[in-house]
């Protein structure tokens, strides 16, 4: 394996799509560069058109899968996207390798889809979603400010 991941060069989004009622600018949800660091098993990096940079580990992305099933599961546990499942005490501790995708592909011009090695691939990670769950300290701090999360 010598190549350093899959590169996408997204085109500008067609004009007049949803984004309007959101408080994120078009540039904020328009990736200038997308790097899926598959061979390193590291994760996803996006440089946005507004100059912001985001990065996520594959483990985080797997736990943030936006498909209906995973959303439901998280809702039941009260987990936020990216929060791992609570370990069940009934299950014997077993080494599980960190989740990583076997492959990834662009979905139209608006999203990314991962084919996880566990066989799951239903999640469509839209640029809008990804920008909103940016894990950089600046965005995490801003999120805490607005929700006023204690502890
Ligand atoms: Zn899912
Ligand atoms: Zn950020």
Please tell me about this protein's structure.
With 151 residues, this protein is of the alpha+beta class. The chain has four helices and seven strands. A four-stranded antiparallel sheet has the order 1-2-3-4. A three-stranded antiparallel sheet has the order 5-6-7. A hairpin with a 7-residue loop joins strand 6 and strand 7. It is globular, with a radius of gyration of 16 Å. The model is unreliable at 13-21 (pLDDT under 50). It binds zinc ion (2 copies). One zinc ion binds next to helix 2. One zinc ion binds at residues 65, 67, 69-70, 120, 122-123.
SSE blueprint:
Layout lengths: L5 E3 L22 E6 L6 E6 L4 E5 H6 L4 H10 L23 E7 L3 E6 L7 E3 H6 L4 H11 L4
Antiparallel strand pairs: 1-2, 2-3, 3-4, 5-6, 6-7
The structure holds zinc ion (2 copies).
Rg over C-alpha atoms, rounded to the nearest angstrom? 16 Å
N-to-C span: 43 Å
pLDDT average, as an integer?
85
Give the fraction of residues assigned to helices: 10-25%
Shape descriptor reads globular
Order of helices and strands: EEEEHHEEEHH
Number of strands: 7
Q: DSSP helix count?
A: 4
Report the uncertain regions.
13-21
The secondary structure category is alpha+beta
**Beta-strand share of residues:** 15-25%
Quick structural overview:
By secondary structure, this protein is an alpha+beta fold. 22% of the residues lie in helices and 24% in strands. It has four helices and seven strands; from the N terminus they run E-E-E-E-H-H-E-E-E-H-H.
């Amino acid at each position: 394996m010598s190549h350093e991941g899959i590169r996408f060069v997204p085109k500008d989004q067609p004009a007049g799509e949803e984004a309007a009622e959101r408080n994120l600018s078009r540039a904020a949800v328009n990736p200038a560069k997308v790097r899926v660091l598959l061979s390193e098993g590291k994760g996803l990096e996006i440089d946005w058109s507004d100059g912001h940079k985001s990065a996520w580990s594959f483990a985080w992305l797997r736990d943030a899968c936006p498909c209906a099933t995973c959303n439901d599961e998280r809702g039941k546990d009260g987990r936020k996207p990216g929060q791992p499942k609570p370990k069940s005490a009934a299950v014997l501790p077993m080494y599980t390798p960190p989740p990583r995708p076997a492959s990834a592909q662009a979905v139209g011009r608006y999203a990314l889809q991962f084919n996880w090695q566990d066989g799951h691939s239903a999640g469509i990670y839209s640029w809008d979603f990804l920008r909103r769950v940016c894990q950089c300290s600046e965005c995490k701090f801003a999120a805490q400010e607005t929700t006023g999360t204690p502890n």
